[in-house]
Amino acid sequence: MRRPRDMQDVELVEDDGSTFRPPGNPHELAAGDAAPDGTGSVDLLRTGPATRRRARRWRPVAVTVAVLLGLAVVVTDRREAHRLAALRDVPGMLAPLDRPVAELWRFEGQLSEMRGIGGLVVGPTSEDDGGSEIVALDPLTGRAVWRVEALPPGEQGRQIFCPDSSYPGVPDGRRDDPVLACLVAHTTLTQKLPDGSLIQGPGDVRLLALDTATGDVLQDRAVGPGATVTAIGHDLLITDVVLGADGVDHVQVVRIDARDGAQRWSFTTPGGVEAADEGWGRVGWTSASADRLVVQVASGTTWILSADGELLGSWAGDSPAAEREPVYPFPGRDLLIGSTPDGERTVLLDPETGRSVAVKGYPATPTPDDGSLADLVLTQVWSDGTDASGPTLTAFDLATGDELWSGSIVDFGGLAVLDGRVLVRGEDAVSSLDGRTGGTQWSTPIERPGWSQLVTDGRLVLLALPDAVGGPVVAAYAVVDGRKLWEVDVGRVDTLWVIDGHLYAQSDGDLVALG
Q1: What is the residue-wise DSSP string for 246-266?
Q2: Residues near 218 by beta carbon (within 8 Å), at least 6 away in sequence
Q3: What is the per-residue pLDDT across 268-313, written as a single tens digit (0 to 9) for each?
Q4: How far apart, in Å, do the first and last CA atoms of the chain sit?
Q5: Which end of the chain has fewer CB atoms < 10 Å from its terminal CB, N or C?
Q6: What is the C-alpha separation between 434 and 458, in angstroms, rounded?
């Protein structure tokens, strides 16, 4: 064996360009000989000066094509990166996933009204012994950063309610609210209605305000059984019923500093209000929309206040919204949205002018909604006026109230709006609809129908699907064409939802983080 350092004689052979030896072929082929693969004459392999000139002319073209293809890939990747970055701050949008999900951690206990505040997952627990704590969890580890007892163990039926200030019932995205406000009903009262039936409602109620960073109790005070509370920055808006000098009930809104309880201002509705049909419960509501406050009463009258409590405008219940449920800020629009008590019509209100539009159906609020269909409103319409047939997804023009399309999706569940398309989980399929026409872009059958909320990261649609043999899975579908990309077994998963870009599931009564 030759040693690596042995010197060798090397003979340099000058090539006159008359013949060409293919790389890796040690045999010299003369013109007219057969090619080694038997495909023809070796003349095809000859490269004289003219041939090399032609090759040199083609080489820049090939390089240019390769560069252009590379640039196209880079531009596409950058556009996709910009698109995903823009979606990151959309409420309810999942952070991009680069692999199938798996369980990251598990919190033993059920959290209700969870939300992301200051980088933590915060919500009240519901214990079997009737007690309840308000807990803040680290979203990366599931460790309890702080916990505060809200209800000691005791009788069942007591309530704790921690409302979101802007979008009740809708994931509120990334928030840094310094104060969490909750209403805690320590007792329940049984009332007899005129028809003789009995109902239960809150008895002794207290307002509990916490510092979201530390869990320190800022306020702990008694309020009326019909009170509501809204947290705005370091302040609290407390809405309650008070007896006026005229001997009738009025709704009063008081703004206080949660840190020291100092009152900033108060507003009392000019006219009297009536209690709800049940004879108890919330009569007035206050919600926040940008720099405006919306005060409402059950009778339908609405007042618009500035952040300083100045009355900007009001309108009474003499519009299509006369008999309605509370209206709340419509995400991504300068409007308020609600419904009539029977759920058959959706009400849209312009807080600047008092103008209202009512359309068929109950609000179908997409989550997430990137605002690409901001001039539409989606509702769910029952064709025969009953729940038997399931609702049909319907779109209306936001300005005129005209119906634009009524989709083929019946009995649908989760909705999302993304890049002008409506992603929807129907009874037996997950589909993508053109938001302008309602036309089906793609539809993928669901082998195991379920009722999970639809979640998306902008590239994938995720569903929790029950398994035929009792082993549910989380399945992912491509947003662009509906192809199923993967499914994983992560244990029993009842539903999915997103907080601050993180994915969570309720599993066997526990909170589970997936990622």
Answers
A1: TSSEEEEEEEEETTT--EEEE
A2: 179, 209, 210, 211, 258, 259
A3: 988 777 655 443 445 677 877 667 788 877 666 788 888 899 998 8
A4: 56
A5: N
A6: 16
Instruction: For residue 174, report the phi and psi dihedrals to the nearest 5 degrees.
Output: -90, 115
Taking CA atoms, 39 is separated from 28, 33, 503, in Å, by: 17, 11, 60
Mean pLDDT of 146-151: 93
Count of CB atoms within 10 A of residue 23's CB?
A: 4
Domain boundaries in the chain?
Answer: 42-86
Q: What is the DSSP letter of 454?
A: P
Structure letter (DSSP) for residue 49: H
The residues near 128 (Cβ < 8 Å, ≥ 6 apart) are none
Tokens 């390769």, located at residue: 66
How many CA atoms does the CB half-sphere of 190 hold within 13 Å? Answer: 4
The verdict on whether omega for the bond into residue 368 sits within 30 degrees of 0, i.e. cis, is yes
Q: What is the distance, to the nearest Å, from the Cα of residue 18 to the centroid of all Cα atoms in its chain?
A: 71
Q: Which of 269, 253, 146 is nearest to 210 (CA)?
A: 146
Residue type, 110: Q
257: its two tokens: 């500093």
CA pair distance 131, 159, nearest whole angstrom: 10
- Phi first, then psi, for residue 395 (nearest 5°) are -115, 140
For residues 134, 136, 142, 143, the Cα torsion angle rounded to the nearest 10 degrees is: -100
Q: Which helix (H) or strand (E) holds 421?
A: strand 421-425
Q: Which H/E stretch holds residue 50?
A: helix 49-87
DSSP letters for 392-417: EEEEEETTT--EEEEEEEES---EEE
Report the pLDDT averaged over residues 224-231.
85
Query: Hey, what long-range contacts does 96-102 have (CB within 8 A, 24 or more apart)?
Result: 96/457, 96/458, 96/459, 97/457, 97/459, 97/460, 97/476, 97/515, 100/476, 100/486, 100/487, 100/488, 101/462, 101/474, 101/488, 101/490, 101/503, 101/514, 101/515, 102/488, 102/490, 102/514, 102/515
> Of 480, 476, 375, 376, whose CA–CA distance to 432 is shortest?
480
Tell me which of 487 and 73 has the higher pLDDT: 487
Nearest-angstrom CA–CA distance, 48 and 19: 7
Q: Is 5 exposed, middle or buried (0-12, 13-18, 19+ CB in 10 A)?
A: exposed
Q: How many C-alpha atoms does 443 have within 13 Å on its Cβ side?
A: 14
Total Cβ atoms within 10 A of residue 375? 13
Residues in the chain: 515
**CA 492, CA 512: separation in Å to the nearest integer?**
10
Question: What's the CA gap between 243 and 251, in Å, rounded?
Answer: 9
Highest mean pLDDT among 163-167, 270-274, 511-515: 511-515
